[in-house]
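pls ignore typos typing on phone
manganese (II) ion + seq
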Amino acid sequence: MMRQYELVERVASYIAEPDELLLNKAYVYAMQKHGEQKRASGDPYFSHPLEVAAILTELHLDEETIAVALLHDTIEDTDATRREIDELFGEKIGKLVEGLTKLKRLDLVSQQAKQAENLRRLLLAVSDDIRVLLVKLADRLHNMRTLGIMRPEKCRRIATETMEIYAPLAGRMGMQDLRDELEELSFKYINPEAYSAVIGHLEALAEKNRSLTKEITGALERRLKERHIDAVVKSRQKKPYSVFRKMELKSLSFEQLSDIYGFRIIVPSVEDCYRVLGLVHTDWKMVPGRFKDFISVPKQNDYQSIHTTVFGPLSQRVELQIRTREMHEVAEYGIAAHASYKDGEDQFAESKAYASLRKTIEQLAEGDNPEEFLEHTKLELFLDQVFCFTPKGRIIALPKGATPIDFAYAVHTDIGNSCIGCKLNGKIMPVITQLNNGDEVEIIRSESQTPPAAWESVVVTGKARSSIRRASRQAVHRQYSALGARMLERAFSDAGYDFVAKTLDTVLPRLARRSVDDVLSDVGRGEIRPRTVIKSLYPDFEMANSGLASSANQLLPEIPETSGNTPGEQGKTIPIRGLRNDLPVTFSNEGGAVPGDKIVGILTPGEGITIYPSSSSVLSNFKGAKDDLLDVRWDIDVKNRQRFPARIKVLAANLPGTLAAIASVIAEHDGNIQNLVMKVPVEDFTEMEIDIDVWDLSHLTSIITHLKDKEVTTSVERITG
Ligand code: MN
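k done
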C-alpha cells in the first residue's frame, strides 16, 4: 500500500508547493475511518480509495481532488458524516464527497433500465463540480481493475454499465487512455470468448511481427534524425476491444486488420508535426483517403493530431499519428490535462471538452425534463436506444424500433401477456406504433388476453418475442385440451358413461401419452378419436357408430333440433364462443355462422373446429369420419360482445349510386362490411356478394329486410355455403 509520504511526493512532482496538510489529514482520516474493513479480495478497504487517489495523481489533479478521492467512500461505508467532513476539510470537499456518495447509492440499484436515470443524476451531480466525475471515473477504473473477485453475473452487469456509460463519458471528456482501459476491462467480462480469441490472435501476431515493428521504428527514427527532427517514435499496441469493434462494425476479418501497424511520433512543436508529415509523405507512398488534420481542426473534445497512413518499407500499411507533447497530454488526460494546480475548477474552463460537457450539463440542470436530456445524450451515448416512461415515471430503455408491446414485456411478462392496447402520451394508439424517445406509455390490459402469435414478427426485443411464443404455444395447447375435454364429455355421454378426466391416468400407457392433458389436447387436435379413449377404459365398448359418414341424411337427425342456448343440451353439446375464446374455432369461410343459427362443427385434425350453419351444403356433402362432426352450441359472452361473419348475395339495378346505397343501409344498421365481390353484371343488373360482421341472426335478418326495402335491390338473400 502506498505510504502517506509517497502520495505527497507524487503530488509534489507536478504541483510546486502542494497542500501537504490537506493530503495528510485526508489520508489519516480515511485510513482510520475504514479501519479494519476489507474488500472482497481480502485487501484492507483503505487500499481502494488510496488507489483511486493514485490514479488521479497520474492525471495530475489538484490536492482537493486527491483528498476527495481518499474520502470518497467514507460517508457511505463508515460512520463519517457530511458535517464532520465539512468541519475537518471545508464545505467544498464535503459537498464533493457527498456527491460521490449519492452516485455510489445509484450503483447499488443499477439495472439496465435504470442506467439512463443513473447517467442523468451523474451528470447533474457533476454540474456542481466536474471533479466529482473525475473521481467517479477513477473509482470505476479501480473497481474494474479489481473486478475479478465478484460473481460472474455481477461482473457482467458492472462491466456492461462501464462500457455503456463510463467509457463513453471518459471519451467525451477527451480522456482516451482512461476510456481505452475501461473498454478493455469491460470487454473481458462482457464477451470473454471474443476477448480471449482476439488476445490469442494479437499475441501470435506480435510474436510474428516483432522484428518488423522494430524495423519500421528504426527506419522512421533514422529519417527523422537525418533531418534533425527531435522526435520520439512509439509503436502502438493494438487494443483487443478496438480490434473487435472494427471487426464487428466494418465486418473485417482479423487478417484484414492485422496488416496495419500503428506508430505515434511525438515532436516538440506544431511546425515539426508538419515537417514530419512532409517527410513521410515524400519517402513513402500515402494511402489515399486516410489523411486527417486534427491540428488545424481539433475534435470537439480538444483532441489534436495529424493522422496519416503510408505504405511502409515492406509495403505494409503503417498508420501514423503525429503530435506535439502538449497535444499528447491532452489526448491522454483530456479535461484533466487542463486542471489547474492551485485554483481548482476555473482552469477547466479553458478546455473545449469541458465547455461542451458543461453545456450538456447546464441544459440538463435547467429543464429537469427527461425528454430533453435524452434528446441530448442519445446522440453520443445511446445511439441505438429509445427511452420511454411508465405513467409513474420509471424509465424503460428499449432498442430503436421497439413497440408498446416490447415496452409491456420489458416492464413485466404478465403485463406483456395481458396487453390489449396502449396510450402513448395520453392518446390511444395502435400497439405496433414505433416508440420515440420520451414517450409515456400506458399499457391497457385484459386478463383474458392471449398475445396474438402475429405479434412475434412485430416486436424487436428478444424477451417479448420469446414470451409471445411461449404464451401462444400455451394458449393453443389450452384450447386444444379444452376442446378435447368437451369432445370426450360428449362421446362418453353418448356411450352411456360418465367422463371423469382423472380416470385417464390409468390408461396413459395404452394411449401412449404422458399426461391426461396430452390426451385431452390430442383428442382436441383430432389425433386420438374419442372412441379410442372410451375403448381404452371400457374394452367391451362396441363402436356401433363408427365408420364413415355416408350421407348427411343419416347424420343430421342426430344433431339436436335446437342447437341454440337450450339449457337441457348443455351436457351434450360443445359450447362455442367465438374467435377469441378458449377453443380453436373458426367459422365457415363460405358464408360464416352467427348466433341464432343451428350449427355443426367439423373437426379438422391439427387445426381445430370449423363452424357451419346446419343448412350449409358442406355438411350434407361431408364424407369424412363421423367422429369429426361435432354437436356444438352458441355460448355468448355478454360482457365481451363480439361480431360474427355472415355472407349475403344482393342482386341490384346497375345504376350509379347503387353500391353506395347498399353500403349505407348496411352501415346505418350497424353492419360491418368485411369484403365485397362484384359478379359479372347481367344486363342491367349487378350481383354482389357481401361479407358482413353482425351481432347475431336477428341483426342479420334486419339488415336483409332493410336492404330488400330499397328500390335498387331486386333480391337479397343469405348464403351459407
Ligand atoms: Mn469507491
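The two ends are 90 Å apart (CA to CA). Residues 587 and 611 are 5 Å apart (CA to CA). more later
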